[in-house]
Please model this.
Amino acid sequence: MQQGAFSRLADWSSRRPWLWSFVGAGVIFLATIAFTSGKGGADVLAAALTFASFYVIVGIGQMFVITTGPGNVDLSIPANIALAGAVAMKVMDGSNVMILPGLAAVAGVGLAIGCFNFALIRILSIPPIIATLSASFLVQSTAIAYGRGLRIKPPPLFAELATGRLLGVPILAIMALVVAAVMAVVLRRTVYGRSVLAIGQNARAAGLAGIRVERVRFATYVLSAVFASLCGALLAGFSGGASLNMGEEFLLASIAVVVIGGTSVAGGFSNVPGIWGASLFLYLLVTMLNTFGVGAGVRLILTGLIIIAVIALSGGRRAGRG
Amino acid sequence: MSAFVPSPRLVRAALPALSLAALLVAIWFVQPRAISYFGFNLMLNLAMPIAFATIAQLCVITVNDLDLSIGAFVSFVACVGATWLNETPLLGAVVLLGAVAVYALIGALIHLRNLPSIVVTLGMSFFWLGCSVLLLPSPGGSVPAWLAALVKFRTPFVPFAILVSAALALIVHVGLMRSAWGAILRGAGGNPAAVARAGWSLLRTKVTMFALAGVFGVLSGLSLVGLTTSADANIAIRYTLLSIAGVILGGGEFVGGRVSPVGAVLGAMTLTLAGSLLSFLRISPDWQIGAQGAILIVVLALRALVNRLERRR
Model:
């Protein structure tokens, strides 16, 4: 009897690979709260929701790219964020009226970077890792040249959007939740989302079944780049201006949240809820280490080791080359 | 007529050398005085550590993995070189050996658990960065005198950096491309199943290649800190991307164990010299990484063209 219940539980959780990221986030949250004996729990949670939102937005784009199969990954995200942040601040120029044109310009940046990435992959048949890497070199240089000495504050309304709260919940988190819900439906219920999954499982079979493989991959790289650009704009709004190294941490973060969230690096199997769980986990981990009062060095070491431990334990089911 | 058209294979093999030659011609055209002993000594000053890091990356790419932690690792070695290796040489040496062992361990972990190397090595990049920050919270330190003297050694006629790079390319070429062991190591990247069926341990090949990557990473860090004489935790962060670019520029393929040590060293030199050309052209250093990206794209485009011609035959 007990055996049956246990194996049913194991079966239930194995169909929900995202469960573990939420369990991990919960455990870390409780450990942090226990350390401060309950003080500041709500603040920690609000901050976690805000910072996790950035990870979520970027992570969803990265997840779609990784889902399209082994070797697919978008390394241009950090450079993209830096450029998009600078473009957003320059176009908006601190005025509320220019917020929408600014966001349109940012989406244009994402679109251009996505198209460029895919052009390198498709026309020059460069492996995606190298293609997005060399594209990121160019984007990074553009961001440096364009954004040097940029000291423009975000428009008040835009800053409010990025930092404000609605009924105690960060507006940003609500937006990210909506985006995640929409993208979960896109992944599971639309022709595009199912095509992405099919291509990741077997690109050849998907092609023979009539899926326009290259068109879907094109859309996926553009999607990832546009999400990263929007995240760059929001990040600039949140931190009161764009900075050039704003996107640095998102290279690891975007890949880590996808993997910790239970998405297969080999492609073809992914889920959106895990991105939220993993993003909360990643941010709460740093908060916990800060609360415990460890220095920057120890924090970096533990962050690295815990990420490795998580993926070593969750295992590389039919994992290929990442 | 067709007898004079070189085979695509030859063109592909010559591409790294041709890119470097094209770059040298461009430099000579812009600044003829740079093409001299002193000019090369200055321009290729930092080619040595970059070449070592590129070969480290090549070892990992040979077995179908990718090392995103090499930049952080080289920085860590530089920090050890500027602190412990100077103050307590024995401890420094033990730590560096231990670091190589960690690299081997990572190779074993990736193989045994069948993990995606880019995630594991991204995690390791945090680990090494954290170690560096603990060791050297602010830039500084000083290197042992012997190390500084060694890397600044002035050889007659040909700058030391070129001699070391040539020797490195030759040794790795013989070891990896011409020896029986090298064939197995590359085979583990080309067709792991076949190598395993033939009775070789894939675990051992992976551990070997990661350990070698660690050794070359140590050499890179030591030669870098010997040149700069002080270190900081972020000193070589950009080597991660630079080393991958060098391997690919040099004709390496991403999968299948198809690599070229000579090409990789030439690729590293091309990327190093690209910076010099830009400064001779008075182009802002802002565009330096952009230019490296552009070189990468142009060379890969040429290679794609050669491959397409080959298929047409």
